[in-house]
Amino acid sequence: MKKMMTVIIGIVLTANTVFTYTKSTHMVKMRDGINLETDVYLPEGLDSTSVPAVLIRTPYGRERQKPELIAAFTDSSSYALVIQDTRGQHSSEGIDSVFLDDAWGDKKDGY
């Protein structure tokens, strides 16, 4: 575990790209009408309106996620980053049902 943490810290510290982005916050409507608060980080200087994205859905608060750290592991000039609070967490609507509404759960929030 110590070696893995050393590798991760080394990658982060030696990353030579600066993640410059434009952030916007949206309430994204799910299939059942519940809105989930979502931050979208678009790379600055983007020359396209359609780019692949890394999606992170978290019950721990989207503000706690560090886009700069995540960018160290991706080509941050080519990917958008989307971070979403799950149902009932922080500013998202609905009832907290972590893992029950995701992916193949009843509401399929992550489809």
Automatic annotation (TrEMBL):
MF terms in GO: hydrolase activity
Domain Xaa-Pro dipeptidyl-peptidase-like: from-to ranges: 32-99
Recorded hits in InterPro entries, A to Z, give: AB_hydrolase_fold (IPR029058), Xaa-Pro-like_dom (IPR000383)
Q: Where is the signal peptide?
A: none
Mind telling me which Gene3D superfamilies this protein's record contains?
Answer: alpha/beta hydrolase
Q: What is this protein called?
A: Xaa-Pro dipeptidyl-peptidase-like domain-containing protein
Q: Origin organism of this chain? A: candidate division WOR-3 bacterium
